[in-house]
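[User]
Protein folding is very new to me. Any chance you could explain this protein sequence and its structure tokens? I have pasted everything here:
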Amino acid sequence: MTATLRLGSRRSPMAVAQSRQVAGMITERTGRQVEIVGVTTLGDVSRAELTQIGGTGVFVSALREALLSGEVDLAVHSLKDLPAGPVAGIVLAAVPPRDDPRDALVARDGAKLADLPAGARIGTGSPRRAAQLLALRGDLGCVPIRGNANTRLGAVHAGDLDGIVLARAGLDRIGCLHAITQVFEPEEMLPAPGQGALAVECRASDPALAALLGAVTDPASMAAVTAERSLLEALAAGCHAPVAAYAAGTEELRMRAAVMSADGRRVLHAHGATPAARARQLGRNLAAQLLRSGAADLISVNKNGACHMSRTMSVPGWAQQMSTSPSAGGSSGSGE
């Protein structure tokens, strides 16, 4: 009998939902059975802001350690949480079909962004989202917030916040599309590199498994995120700088990218197109455009912590219990 594959996943409801989605695809397309193994990460237990503890990469390291130690055979991540550079001993084996990459607002009383009162408090742990929110409405108060998606939604329902911004794909995975009051088109809020996509990693020493997992890859999604992650790597931006990028297409890949100041007052744009086979070069080309326009200065400022956000939101006691209990699964990433 062929051994059951052990899939490493964070314990949050959203992470488990997306891991089940990938597990089902693997079984359907290869016949291999898959069991999900829960792994707790630093991002799940720390209450500090993501920018203070290493950014969304803190959700990845524990899964990769479990992979390299042999505790699990493969790991599933929100692709936007993956650091852009390569890691020794691990390969990106598959990118399943990408879900909707757009950002979504969940606001009180069904409000859209334009309907919110002056000085409205919007929760987000993402400097990219905060910068673009402030570019749309400079009067907003962007409040760093942690916790899984249900905890964040609860902060709106309890009146602690006027709204929050999350990835539409993440809300879809936990069955909360009904909570969305506005979806931002990329022209309004450009997504994070890799947003809406999932990453399946395995050990580089297991090429047979990597080939097997390739059965769940969508070539167009892989090309798009390759371009986006190539841009991020070339900019050496990390999590602190508000960097956005979105690529799409089949034979021809079109991509838009932006780097912005934390207050949203300065935004640098780049765009381009190339055959999908040259996705990596497209990302590098757009990064070069942005760097020629002065992106390095914006990235340097944000790396040094100049973030124009309000003080981190104090999470109510009920929310802390929800965020740290094993059943709730802890914090989510910077947007999903």
